From TrEMBL:
Signal peptide: none annotated. Belongs to the short-chain dehydrogenases/reductases (SDR) family. Keywords: NADP, Oxidoreductase. Pfam families: adh_short (PF00106). InterPro entries: NAD(P)-bd_dom_sf, SDR_fam. SUPFAM superfamilies: NAD(P)-binding Rossmann-fold domains. This is Uncharacterized protein. The keyword tRNA-binding does not apply.
Length: 114
């Protein structure tokens, strides 16, 4: 019983995974999707990001979208924050295997959007 309650809670979660087009980021996207989490896969390279989304969608659910972001570009990060806020209104999970600087930029942008 407790397990199904946990799964119900996680199904309503929104996650952003940076560098989700390859390696550990890709696998994290796959695992989160398998748990019913809505995943925003991000990558610098739009073509590679979209290819990863198509590959993941073909083997799993459709709880996945792509958004291009360059984590060292504040405007790009701001665009990601705006996308998350306008489409989902919240962010529950941030997986950032690429660089810690993104966490700071997202925090600042979220503070400014309040």
């Amino acid at each position: 019983m407790a397990e199904s309650k946990c799964e119900d809670v996680i199904r309503k979660k929104i996650a952003v995974v940076t560098g989700g087009n390859k390696g550990i980021g890709y696998e994290i996207c796959r695992q989160l999707m398998g748990k019913g989490v809505m995943v925003v896969l991000t990558a610098r390279d739009e073509k590679r990001g979209k290819e990863a989304v198509e590959k993941l969608k073909s083997s799993s659910s459709s709880n996945l979208v792509f958004h291009q972001v360059d984590v060292v570009d504040p405007q790009s990060v701001s665009n990601l924050v705006h996308f998350i806020k306008s489409n989902y209104g919240k962010l529950d999970i941030l997986v950032n295997p690429t660089t810690p600087i993104l966490i700071y930029h997202i925090y600042v942008c979220l503070c400014l959007l309040k």
